[in-house]
User: What shape does this take?
Amino acid sequence: MTRSLQAVAYTRPSALESTAEGRLLGLETSRGATPTGVQDHPSFFSGFLTHPQAAAAGLLAVADVAAARYNRPQLAASLDPVVTGNGDRLRFESFSGCCGVYARLDVLSGGLDGGDVGHGTTNVDVNNPLREALSRVGTLDPVHLRVGPDELAVTTTDGPVVEKKVPLPDRWLRGFAESQVVSAGFELRAELPAAEAVRFLRSLPRGGGRGGASWVVPAGRGLRPTTRPVPGAVCLPGPERLAALQRVLRHATALRVYGPGVSGTG
Assistant: This one.
């Protein structure tokens, strides 16, 4: 597998801090693309999260995927998610280090309050202390979100203080565009209510074993395993790859399952 060395640099680590006005979630950005050209540390948003606990859980799930290698679980990937400002939403995306799992969190306009969303794409720093802080965000905690550097901050440093050099498979870089093309051809196979979604995800085997069913098929309000690619079935090659969804189960209202067309094999 061809790999390239990607260097990402941040002015400081991302952090969740307590201030006189409440809690501030500062997500630091690296060099990225904007409509006006490449910028060292673009800013995409400054305002409040209307559902901070759900947003924190979703960001952690995306970061979990970026840090995982599902084909070799003992090796961490240490990759940073990608953030995109689309004007009407903030999109956080990641691929696992093995390129086998893609994760995406869209914080729509209804989840943001008090600021305009910019346009552009770059990496965002998600470090271990930030992970621990995000896991403790409560339902009633008001959280101010800043994506990009604080324009009012004064710095005396001559350059970034946080730098990471990560070997990336070339297909990891291509995957963000390719995933959009591939998923565009997927069809909705099932929609599970929240209770059934929780039951299904918690019933999946853990530990990365090779046994168990490799397909699931709609059955009533839920899903059941099957050993054959029957019409309407969805391939599930490695249930442990859905582990990151455990982060957001308490906030789920439904689970939609998509897949490409499958023909029966008799």
